[in-house]
């Protein structure tokens, strides 16, 4: 059993540890509407990574084929028939600065780009992508899904 002096010392130590421990950054968990409003991406933890999966498409049927859209521009011929709905487009690791970094797949051109996610506030997620030295970004908004 601890003496009152030891209890006070222990409480003070725990308080200092709690105050000086780094705050955990907010995570972008949830469903996000892309800037163009053509897709919703569910962002959630998958192990130590943050993953993004297509969960809704404005155009659920490809006008050319009359079928659900597929990954027809994928450079791997074996993947060109997989459906876009349900497709994981990223699995990013924490970048240590409150964001997430890793590859992000763009089914529109079949390319994977260097990407980064930054939660700007509870309702806005900045999604950055770079092809070599050229970079761009868009802002996704939190969806009610």
Layout: helices, strands, pairs:
Layout: H1 4-20, E1 30-33, E2 39-46, E3 49-57, E4 88-94, E5 100-106, E6 111-121, E7 124-131, E8 134-142
Antiparallel strand pairs: 1-2, 1-8, 2-3, 3-4, 4-5, 5-6, 6-7, 7-8
What's this entry about, in short?
The protein has 145 residues and is mainly beta. Helices cover 12% and strands 43% of the residues. It has an eight-stranded antiparallel beta barrel with strand order 1-2-3-4-5-6-7-8.
What does this structure look like?
The protein has 145 residues and is mainly β. Helix content is 12%, strand content 43%. The protein has one helix and eight strands; from the N terminus they run H-E-E-E-E-E-E-E-E. An eight-stranded antiparallel β-barrel has the order 1-2-3-4-5-6-7-8. Strand 4 and strand 5 form a beta hairpin. The longest helix is centred in the N-terminal third of the chain and has 17 residues. The N and C termini lie far apart (52 Å). The N terminus is likely disordered.
Q: Let me know the largest β-sheet.
A: 8 strands, antiparallel, barrel
Shape: globular
Helix percent reads 10-25%
Query: Gyration radius, to the nearest Å?
Result: 21 Å
What portion of the residues fall into strands of 2 or more residues?
Answer: 35-45%
Average pLDDT score: 86
Helices and strands: which structural class?
Answer: mainly beta
Strand numbers in spatial order across the main sheet: 1-2-3-4-5-6-7-8
Number of H- or I-type helical stretches: 1
Number of strands: 8
Give unreliable regions as ranges: 1-23
N to C succession of SSEs: HEEEEEEEE
* C-alpha termini separation: 52 Å
